[in-house]
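User: Here's a structure from my thesis project, written as structure tokens. My advisor, Dr. K., wants to see whether a designed sequence matches the one we expressed. Can you design one independently, without my sequence as a hint?
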């Protein structure tokens, strides 16, 4: 699995990048063919496309040639691309070549502009939401942190007992003798006084004892998990995985505010109780989180439709609002043809059917400016399903803060 962490950390810097010439190239990778002729041909074709676009954009040909030559040299390095990558991002601007392996396969893309072209890959990167998974089993408990493409185990601490067996070694209340009257009464037909029954370690097979011990253990685990994950701001959702009865006990003792209502069903172990199929856990957890994010997107579309006074789907008003930081939520088509044009310092927006010198993709510019101001961005395929008065679907729409 190729890590998205580096790209996620890189995106804020790419959003803030504003240079005279920024080339953005994206390639899907055939894992067995990362170094074969097909990859080289596709890379060369994209670099040639950037060079041709640079002429229409009005970029300095000498600068562009130096950028493309640097990119070619960097990509040839044996460690430049992860062997597990599904895609490749190349961001070129004077003085730097950024090579990033991707855990998804983007469509072939090459462009040059003032800003990094994030619109083509935005649906693959956002929305995302980190989450935790508490994996419960008779053999012990494990905590994982995951996101859209990756998952890893969280170390709760060397002194934390993650199995019932380890917990019981120092848990005096569980090991102490207890008195209960759940045994059958002595005498004919079960009538008469019940016999007092004391049980401790030697009565470990008693079901009530086992439930009590597991309840205390999972209460202890919940405290230890919260000690780690409640440091996050904002709090991240926690999902439960494991057998039904263990999930039920954990939920009864849970004190974490963002324990998710939905749980991960099924067995996700690859061997013993303590060996988890982390890829299966990540996939099952992300399906739940993705449903939440899809619901939030639909609610954002509803707010757009209802708040007519603060919504627009025409290029000029959306761009002006984005540049001034007034866009709360932007909806943009990731795969639509670029809307070429320029934004004047005074706020004027000029669009053209064909790209002219100095023009940029205004759809991508709206995304960049919205992201810089902390707005939320949702990307669709070829159109935005907000519907204007002519029942057409625009390629960009926005709801404003004011």
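Assistant: Designed independently from the structure alone:
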């Amino acid at each position: 699995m190729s890590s998205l962490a580096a790209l996620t950390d890189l995106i804020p810097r790419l959003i803030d990048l504003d240079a005279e010439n920024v080339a953005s190239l994206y390639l899907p990778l055939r894992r067995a063919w990362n170094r074969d002729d097909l990859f080289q041909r596709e890379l060369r074709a994209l670099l040639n496309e950037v060079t041709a676009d640079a002429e229409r954009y009005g970029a300095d040909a000498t600068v562009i040639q130096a950028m493309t030559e640097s990119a070619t040299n960097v990509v040839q390095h044996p460690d430049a691309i992860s062997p597990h990558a599904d895609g490749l991002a190349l961001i070129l601007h004077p003085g730097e070549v950024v090579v990033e392996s991707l855990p998804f396969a983007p469509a072939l893309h090459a462009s040059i502009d003032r800003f990094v072209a994030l619109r083509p890959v935005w649906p693959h990167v956002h929305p995302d939401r980190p989450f935790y998974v508490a994996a419960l089993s008779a053999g012990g408990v494990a905590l994982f942190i995951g996101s859209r493409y990756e998952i890893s185990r969280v170390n709760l601490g060397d002194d934390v007992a993650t199995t019932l067996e380890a917990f019981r070694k120092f848990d005096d209340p569980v090991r102490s003798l207890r008195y209960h009257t759940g045994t059958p009464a002595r005498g004919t037909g079960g009538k008469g006084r019940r016999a007092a029954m004391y049980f401790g370690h030697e009565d470990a097979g008693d079901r009530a004892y086992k439930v009590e011990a597991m309840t205390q253990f999972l209460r202890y685990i919940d405290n230890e998990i919260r000690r780690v994950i409640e440091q996050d701001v904002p709090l991240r959702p926690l999902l439960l995985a494991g057998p039904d009865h263990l999930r039920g006990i954990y939920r009864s003792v849970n004190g974490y505010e963002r324990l998710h209502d939905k749980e991960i069903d099924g067995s996700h172990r690859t061997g013993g109780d303590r060996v988890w199929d982390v890829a299966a856990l990540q996939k099952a957890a992300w399906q739940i989180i993705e449903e939440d994010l899809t619901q939030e997107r639909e609610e954002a579309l509803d707010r757009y439709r209802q708040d007519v006074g603060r919504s627009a789907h025409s290029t000029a008003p959306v761009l002006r609002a984005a540049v001034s930081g007034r866009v709360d939520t932007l909806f943009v088509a990731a795969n639509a043809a670029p809307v070429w044009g320029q934004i004047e310092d005074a706020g004027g927006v000029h669009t053209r059917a064909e790209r002219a010198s100095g023009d940029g993709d205004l759809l991508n510019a709206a995304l960049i400016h919205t992201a810089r101001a902390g707005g939320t961005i949702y990307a669709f395929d070829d159109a935005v399903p907000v519907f204007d008065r002519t029942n057409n679907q625009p390629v960009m729409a926005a709801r404003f803060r004011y």
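When you compare it with your expressed construct, this may help: The chain is about 35% helix and 20% strand.
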